[in-house]
Amino acid sequence: MRIFTNLAVFASAAVVFQAFFTPSSQFVQYKRNRIESTFLQSWRDYVSNGWDADVYRPLSKKGSYMYGSTEKPLGWIIVDSIDSMFLMYNSSAHHREEFKAEILRVEHWIKTKLDYDIDVSVSLFETTIRMLGGLLSAYYLSDLLGVGNSTLYLEKATDLADRMLPAFHHENAKIPYSSVNLHTGESRKNHVDMGSSSTAEFTTLQLEFKYLSAITGDVKYWKEVEKVYKPLYEENNLIDRYDGLVPIYTNPDTARFWGNNIRLGSRGDSFYEYLLKQYLQSDEHLYYELYRESIEGVKRHLISRSKPNGLVYIGEKENGLNGGLSSKMDHLVCFMGGLIAMGATEGWPITEARKQNFWDAEREEDWNLAQDLTYTCYQMYHQIPSGLSPEIVVFNDGLNGETGSWWQSREGDFFVKPADAHNLQRPETVESLMFLYHLTKDSKYRDWGWEIFQSFKIHSGVQCKYTDSECAYTCLKNVLANPPTRSDNVESFWYAETLKYLHLLFQDNVDLRSMVFNTEAHPFPVITPEQTQNGALLNTGWELA
Ligand SMILES: *[C@@H]1O[C@H](CO)[C@@H](O)[C@H](O)[C@H]1NC(C)=O
Ligand SMILES: *[C@@H]1O[C@H](CO)[C@@H](O)[C@H](O)[C@H]1NC(C)=O
């Protein structure tokens, strides 16, 4: 409590000081510099105490491999973190050489130690978004910025993709199974949920494999990942029967949905994200149409407002479209503000977007929704005692029933159940702030992001020295307490996403029309016909019946 107050006073004194004596661009540079230092502290703690582990515990300083029995690392944290270092290297005023040294450290490790010939079954989805995505964007940025050896990243990415590809041609299955053995290529069904694949998982592989096709000129990756959509849409009559919304489980053999649970949180989220992003990546209009159907479905069925202040939220339909709306919302859903803003503007600043031929009433409505959702997600931090969002909130819809043991926000708009009060340093809210800032240049988005960053610094920073030279960052068990209790783990997306999006929020020239971020925040360039070596072959390989 005391620390928080003192720092808040110090921070506002700094604002006054900075406003008087330095141009605002220098103050922005100061904030970017603070985020870079935080990245470097957290990264160095890992390098010193957990190097090359896939799982790292910052409190006990212990690391382990995800598949310990093989004694082979997957590069879970390392590969996920590289492109954040490339981006920070590029725009840093004070730490360029340090970032460069770290990039070269990682590159040497990849060259000498990383070997994906591992006889274990890995998650097709997680390995694609984190490892394949991380290697591909390292390839892109290494080449673009002229640091390191981009060929090395591409070679590793291609090797990993080839090891996962057998998952797509499993006999008798229309949809890939959820895991694949990197040595044998054998794929396996999920061992829970009746063998179902998560709907968001097999529909969140496309950006990565399509980009690989564009770089290598080999269409096989593109063709394989696209095959999932035709059966998914047609077997389920997805547009007419589901209004573009998807239950979170799919039977991979039949491509039919399993169960009725519809939500934009875990297992549902990035289905919607990759529809839009495939359109932004490769200008395939079918995907924009499918995205549009889905967003209209979201507006029709899932949007509501809290009591008493009318915060806009996205609820869940646990019993299908005809069931009631549950007012529970995962923090994961907070990426939707940024996504819907990108869907409305296609990356043009809002004043420019409104002048484009594509602008219409639906997009104006999307744009308002995007801003409202982003505001709600900011409130999920701002109204919490520690300033950090819990994993899940339940909005006050006036019908919540027995809420005796639940914590209620000070203005009454949402509750937190005791089991949901943890924080995994997730990125989705700062992700949306980053998009909204660059589309509007409205400084309130930077102010909100800075407030969130300060809360992370104060509460998830541990063992910090006064000089700021040393600090580790860890997840939190209970954000309702101030200070919160801590847990002993750091997620790779803290490095890959949260700190990267915060850093991008404080960069000035982010062109959202030239790159697309995968669901793990790995940027890929937009694919143009000139960039593809085999342009004519890279096109949408299916249409709706
Ligand atoms: C690298 O930095 C320059 C100068 O700030 C900027 O214009 C460019 O967009 C940056 N590139 C990337 C990939 O961030
Ligand atoms: C870059 O890496 C590739 C692949 O490992 C290697 O063949 C090539 O010699 C390297 N280039 C340089 C300049 O080191």
Automatic annotation (TrEMBL):
Full protein name: alpha-1,2-Mannosidase
UniProt organism field: Lachancea lanzarotensis
Classification via Gene3D superfamilies: 1.50.10.10
Annotated catalytic residues: 126, 269, 391, 428
Family recorded in the similarity comment: Belongs to the glycosyl hydrolase 47 family.
Keyword tags: Calcium, Disulfide bond, Glycosidase, Hydrolase, Metal-binding, Signal
One Pfam family of this chain: Glyco_hydro_47
EC number assigned by the record: 3.2.1.-
Reactions it catalyzes: N(4)-(alpha-D-Man-(1->2)-alpha-D-Man-(1->2)-alpha-D-Man-(1->3)-[alpha-D-Man-(1->3)-[alpha-D-Man-(1->2)-alpha-D-Man-(1->6)]-alpha-D-Man-(1->6)]-beta-D-Man-(1->4)-beta-D-GlcNAc-(1->4)-beta-D-GlcNAc)-L-asparaginyl-[protein] (N-glucan mannose isomer 8A1,2,3B1,3) + 3 H2O = N(4)-(alpha-D-Man-(1->3)-[alpha-D-Man-(1->3)-[alpha-D-Man-(1->6)]-alpha-D-Man-(1->6)]-beta-D-Man-(1->4)-beta-D-GlcNAc-(1->4)-beta-D-GlcNAc)-L-asparaginyl-[protein] (N-glucan mannose isomer 5A1,2) + 3 beta-D-mannose; N(4)-(alpha-D-Man-(1->2)-alpha-D-Man-(1->2)-alpha-D-Man-(1->3)-[alpha-D-Man-(1->2)-alpha-D-Man-(1->3)-[alpha-D-Man-(1->2)-alpha-D-Man-(1->6)]-alpha-D-Man-(1->6)]-beta-D-Man-(1->4)-beta-D-GlcNAc-(1->4)-beta-D-GlcNAc)-L-asparaginyl-[protein] (N-glucan mannose isomer 9A1,2,3B1,2,3) + 4 H2O = N(4)-(alpha-D-Man-(1->3)-[alpha-D-Man-(1->3)-[alpha-D-Man-(1->6)]-alpha-D-Man-(1->6)]-beta-D-Man-(1->4)-beta-D-GlcNAc-(1->4)-beta-D-GlcNAc)-L-asparaginyl-[protein] (N-glucan mannose isomer 5A1,2) + 4 beta-D-mannose
Disulfide bonds: 334-377
Cofactor(s) recorded in Swiss-Prot or TrEMBL: Ca(2+)
GO biological process: carbohydrate metabolic process; ERAD pathway
Highest rank taxon of the organism: Eukaryota
GO MF terms, alphabetically ordered: calcium ion binding; mannosyl-oligosaccharide 1,2-alpha-mannosidase activity
SUPFAM superfamilies in UniProt: Seven-hairpin glycosidases (SSF48225)
Pathway this chain belongs to: Protein modification; protein glycosylation
Signal peptide start and end residues: 1-19
Any Gene Ontology CC annotation: endoplasmic reticulum
